[in-house]
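Archive entry: two folds, one per protein. Generate the first.
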Amino acid sequence: MRLVFLGTPAAAVPSLRAVVDAGHEVVLVVTRPDRRRGRGSTLSPSPVKEAALELGLPVAHSVKALDEVSADLGIVVAYGAMIKPEVLERLPMLNVHFSLLPRWRGAAPVERAILAGDEETGVGIMALEATLDTGPLHAERRVTVGDKTASALTRELADVGAALLVEVLADSQAVATATPQVGEPTYAQKLDAETFHLVPSMTAEEAARVVRLERAWCLLGEKRFRVVEATAGSEGAPAGTVAREGNRAGLACRDGVLWLTSVQPEGSKAMAASAWLAGARLGDDVRWS
């Protein structure tokens, strides 16, 4: 099958590689423009562009480039922009979406599933529509959330989605048949800095879910304090204080303690929480917010 592929982040790369390995002809890869990453001024390509160039595939940075190619189908995996109706009229597209639609339509389905405490999520192969994640489903596969971090869950979903995409493309009946989404939609709003801000009014479990997004932070005294790994405990302490028990420390929440495993104090590298506690010289009145 002649395909065009639209995607940008690392999570889209397994699907690109999978369709190439399955023998499909990818006539064009469309990805977001190169951008600056980190502190340097050098522009860096997206992970999808890097993979496409490695595979010897032509790359474009605009959907307008689709006007110049002939294809049977488009594949969209986390491209990062809406596709206009007139483009979809010319070229039908399938979208690999990392949730159990209609739950978590939108930009951050993996993170929102973790924050909500969902026991399972999954991948849907959806017929792309001009409206946000509303298309009917060609196939779906479920995945247990457990206590996985956002990056680990995303990697798993990316691999599962790539395999499911290849299965759908290999079955003409599956490509031709789609089932409307059923259920109450929920929306995965974009994440901002406050999404990752731990506060004492959270339950310990809520705080642990934020930590699993891998960008959790709070203020310890007046300094920014990053929580890299932690677990929720039921031991009580006044909310907003730092709980201590032997060589471990935790952030006291509304109903328990977020026990710290790995942390990164402001101006320091990440370290074991026990090592941080040994050298922190915390006063009895230190508070976090």
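Generate the second and append.
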Amino acid sequence: MSLRHINILTPQHTINKVCGIDLGLKEFAIITNGTGIYKIEHPKCLRKAEKRLKRLQKALSRKQKGSKNREKARKRLAIQHEYVSNARNDFLHKLSKAIIDDNQAIVVEDLNVKGMQKTDLAKPVSDSRFGTFVRYLEYKADWYGRQLIKVDRFYPSSKLCNVCGYKYNKLKLSDRYWQCPICGTYHDRDINAYINLYKVGMERPDFKPV
């Protein structure tokens, strides 16, 4: 399988049986289906606009309360927040629609987003809007007659060798790569995770190839 970036503005029209999606902070998502492996970069909407938002917030705080200038500054800040929100939602809608268009079944992990927001990764997790993305997949799957399969958040997708099934319990969150001690396969943790998610869908009787 080839590894390349998918163009989310022009989804393919060949319907595949199953795709597996691994969401993360290095890439927004890594997707595998019958046609290949695709990396989706983070739009980083909030992080890209952060400097401007801080500048507008600082300008607002300097204005006298109740003044016309303060109201103008407040509107400028609100417009910038709305721009960030619209840009993020546009990305999530286009990506979820492209995935739904191209696949009959979508397998994704049921992430503990609230728990992740209580860690040092709170800001990038919040900017990613993983929970919103999964909700978009859910209602679009319902609309277009697709099946969304949520895998339990405790499923060790990164720790299972996708070749022999060995579970590498020593894998830490900081480890990006690991080698299976049984079959010797060298794994990128993210690629290994979404291949395992893809296999979850393919093992279902209604999607298993004959």
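Annotation attached to the second fold: The longest helix spans residues 68-102. The helical segments are 45-62, 68-102, 113-116, 122-128, 130-144, 189-202.
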